[in-house]
Amino acid sequence: MIKALGSHLDLDSEEGYNSEYYSYVSDLLDSDVVCSMKEYIQHGGITTFQHCLNVSYYNYLICKLFSLDARAGARAGLLHDLFLYDWHTDKKPSHAYLHPRTALENAEKNFELSNMEKDIIAKHMYPVTITHFPKYRETWVIIMVDKWCALAETTLAIASKVRRLLSFRRSRIEF
């Protein structure tokens, strides 16, 4: 069972509410290359796979809400950080600027992509990638959703550390 941050719904199921979402991304979820993102940490303790799943699912919901291409939003969201390295240890100074291109190259090697999906992946870091202006409304959606998910994931990691620290201090005070 896989879930997006803040959702109680099973996203790797063909049944129920998520059947449309699942039909859009099931081939990606079953691929070894997408599953390999589980090996890398993205924000706090969140894996790159979980981050991309979060972005994918909320992209899908927002695109659907505004009658945009929810399929392209879901698929590109799952592939937008397919850069396949640990940016914390590999310390690439230009990671924020270059990783969209690497993710797009990896996605194109492994999957057939629409022009919209390519644009979404390549330009999801705008305005960091200022020279790559978004072409589609769906690209603007991922720009916002990606930043919201990154903030939420990082905030959860910080809150978890604070809770552990407070719990540790309380346990040292009590005999």
Q: Care to describe what's here?
A:
Strands 1-2 form a two-stranded antiparallel ribbon. The termini are far apart. 59% of the residues lie in helices and 3% in strands. With 175 residues, it is mostly helical. A hairpin with a 2-residue loop joins β1 (41-43) and β2 (46-47). α3 (48-65) packs across α7 and α4 (70-79) packs across α7.
Key phrases:
about 180 residues; mainly alpha; two-stranded antiparallel sheet; 7 helices
Secondary structure layout:
Layout: H1 19-29, H2 32-35, E1 41-43, E2 46-47, H3 48-65, H4 70-79, H5 95-110, H6 115-122, H7 137-173
Helix pairs in contact: 1-4, 3-4, 3-7, 4-6, 4-7, 6-7
Strand order of the largest sheet: 1-2
Structural class by sheet pairing and helices: mainly alpha
- What form results from the Cα inertia axes? globular
Mean pLDDT: 85
Uncertain ranges: none
- Strand content is under 5%
Largest sheet, strands/sense/barrel = 2 strands, antiparallel
End-to-end Cα distance: 41 Å
Give the helix proportion (percent range). Answer: 55-70%
Radius of gyration: 17 Å
Quick description:
This protein is mostly helical. It contains 7 helices and 2 strands.
